[in-house]
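subagent[fold] <- orchestrator: predict structure for attached chain, return tokens only, no commentary.
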Amino acid sequence: MGTSTTTNEKAAGPAKAGAGPSLAPAPGGGRRKRTLGVQNAAGWLFSTPFLVLFAVFMAFPILATLAMSFTDFGLRNVTRPWEAEFIGFENYVNLFGDEKFLKSLFNTGYFVVVGVPLTIGIGLVVAVLLNNGIDRARTFFRVGFYAPVVTTIVAVAVVWRFVLDPSDGLIAGLFSEVGWTAPDFLGSETLAMPSLIVMAVWRNVGTVMVLFIAGLQAIPTEVREAAKLDGASVWQEFRSITIPLLRPTVLYATVITTIGYLNVFEEPFVMTQGGPSDSTLTVSLNMYREGFNFFHMGYASAMAYVLFVVIMGITVLQLRLLKDNTK
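subagent[fold] -> orchestrator:
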């Protein structure tokens, strides 16, 4: 009996050992871990310059501005920032009782509501024409439409001041040919903002055009050829094939254009300085004035974060409304 039991245990021992998972480390496992550690260290090492620059010039100013928005930070606190008084949400409350801020918020909304559809629509039309309708000198026209994008705002302002000048401008000359007097586009409360919108559309339509050309060239030619074989007209093909397949591009172009127009600053700053009678005063220009002209830096910081929340809200809304149609 004892001998039988011992024999069975010896026989079962190897079987049990073979049945369970091996506890021995896989060959080369330690070497693999060391390689991954070296790669991670190298990645952090090469990322360090960017991380330092981002922390110093982006992250710290953003957090500092957020902190300033809850204080009465002003010119006296530039050299002694720790003496700024904490006032809580007072700056934010005062903003929505400030007629000038509400006026700038309305002007910015007007600029976006009119400017974005015009930029997207004209950019799409130009892209379709350059992609399909124009065969000769296509590159020349593409460069011509994109040139305003890379032109400095000062050069753009010089050109448009000449075009819009009520006495010696290009439009004034055209009006005089038919015996009319040209209006003062930049000096009129009614026409100043539409004039800036026209200039902004002219300046930014090239960016949207490039995006739409890329989207059009990504549409498979087989789809269009199939539509033509089925007897679809040009408009039916554009409405039923081109537009649905361009929806991701439309989404991206709409979002970046809206964000850019919500931050509009250069056009009114260079052309009108927010006038006449604050009719072209935007939130960004108002923020610049409060912060750098009147040195109400805490108040300007609160204005910046209100604009940030507005941009975030509109962007999320656009993504939800348009993204559902891109699936």
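orchestrator: received. Logging for downstream: DSSP finds 14 helices and no strands in the chain. Residues 1-20 have pLDDT under 50 and may be disordered.
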